[in-house]
Write a structure and sequence with these properties.
The chain is about 25% helix and about 25% strand. The chain has helices at about 20-30, 40-45, 55-60, 75-80, 100-105, 125-130, 165-190, 215, 225-235, 315-325; strands spanning about 5, 10-15, 35-40, 65, 85-90, 95, 110, 120, 135-140, 145, 150-160, 195, 205-210, 240-245, 250-260, 275, 280-285, 290-295, 330, 335, 350-355. It is built from ten helices and 21 strands. It folds into two domains: about 5-210, 3-Layer(aba) Sandwich (Rossmann fold), CATH 3.40.50.170; about 215-320, Methionyl-tRNA Fmet Formyltransferase, Chain A, domain 2 (Roll).
Length: about 350
């Protein structure tokens, strides 16, 4: 069994974005580590608490950070790497090249929120909800060239409670677990403990691509009721909701559940609003009823009150086809121009590592 030891660490470079990065930075700073954050423009402009961006939150907390588009040859990044530096990726926007990885001499690691190697790639909790997977993981692995395939350094397995239904539920619960996990991990690093690393068996590997709500979240009303409910939940908060149309207007659905009290329906009845309650809309879907709590227009305004009995939710076929053809490619600046079935990106500078 292979063991690694990170040695005497006095500085941690954080690569990535999100509220969890901010929490980690604060925890490390309070523990006496020098902390430097390198974040992409798209991460720094994301809005979080009270509509404040990550950039504003980092400034508020007094955390040193740099906004960079490229990483591998950035002089500020390179000047911060020493034999006492630990690099930690938290949803980093960049492709780490082999030459860059080697500068850390095994001390560049990534935190992954799901099981490896079965859940490599992106899309996070949306894929987890679609798969009805309640197994949770806090996991640290070394960054190797490739896609999420470095040796596993430490992990913790848990079960998400039944109340976790939408991505925000999973994110909140996972962040709670991850903060505790990371604190324990860093206490072991500080104590210069050896870690028994575990290789990932390739024959168990699976890869799931990144998602983009705007392009992927269109409801297919021909699906089974349970699949429609799961799909809507999977694109709920913090995302914009699953999309469909009614009366020629594009709308987004959030907050739904199934009910079988009124029996099953013929396929031609799918998507019809057959009952309205004070706050909910009841829609017929082959096996039973879909109860919907929120119907939003493209401005985010609720339009439930404008809908009438007998009107039908539907999604034109072209949107369903485009959703399956679309590949979400993100750069440090954000979502790349819409590409339908693009070729794989070529790397011209050597082996790469994709942290997704």
């Amino acid at each position: 069994m292979i063991k690694i030891n990170f040695g005497d660490i006095n500085k941690v470079i954080l690569f990535g974005g999100g509220l969890f990065l901010r929490d980690v930075a604060k925890q490390l700073s309070n523990s006496g580590y020098e902390v430097v954050v390198f974040s992409a423009p798209r991460h720094l402009k994301e809005q979080w608490e009270g509509g404040r961006t990550l950039k504003e939150l980092l400034i508020k907390d007094g955390i040193d950070f740099y906004e960079v588009e490229g990483i591998s040859t950035n002089k500020k990044v390179l000047s911060n790497i020493t034999d006492k530096t630990l690099g930690l990726s938290l949803g980093a926007a960049w492709i780490f090249k082999e030459q860059f990885i080697q500068l850390f001499n095994g001390r560049l690691i990534n935190m992954h929120g799901t099981r490896l190697p079965q859940n490599r790639g992106g899309g996070g909790f949306t894929w987890q909800i679609l798969g009805k997977n309640k197994l949770g993981y806090c996991l640290v692995h070394q960054v190797f060239p490739g896609i999420d395939n470095g040796d596993i350094v430490k992990y913790k397995e848990f079960i998400y409670p039944a109340l976790c239904q939408i991505p925000q539920d999973f994110i909140d619960y996972h962040n709670q677990k991850s903060i505790i996990f990371f604190k324990e991990f860093m206490s072991q690093v500080k104590a210069k403990n050896d870690f028994k690393v575990v290789g990932q068996p390739e024959y168990l590997s699976m890869y799931w691509p990144r998602l983009n709500t705007k392009n992927h979240a269109f409801i297919d009303w021909s699906w089974l009721l349970e699949h429609v409910e799961t799909f809507i939940n999977a694109f709920d908060a913090p995302y914009g909701g699953a999309a469909t149309f009614i009366n020629g207007q594009k709308v987004f659905l959030k907050g739904c559940q199934v009910d079988y009290n009124d029996g099953s329906f013929h396929p031609f009845q799918q998507g019809i609003i057959y009952r309205k309650m004070e706050d909910e809309i009841l829609v017929s879907v082959n096996e039973g009823t879909l109860i919907i709590n929120k119907v939003l227009n493209e401005d985010g305004k609720g339009v439930q009150d404008e809908l009438r009995l007998g009107e039908r939710f539907y999604t034109p076929l072209k949107y369903l086809e485009q959703a399956k053809m679309f590949k979400a490619v993100y750069t440090p600046m954000g979502l790349k121009d819409e590409v339908l079935c693009p070729p794989l990106e070529d790397d011209i500078d050597g082996k790469i590592s994709r942290i997704i």
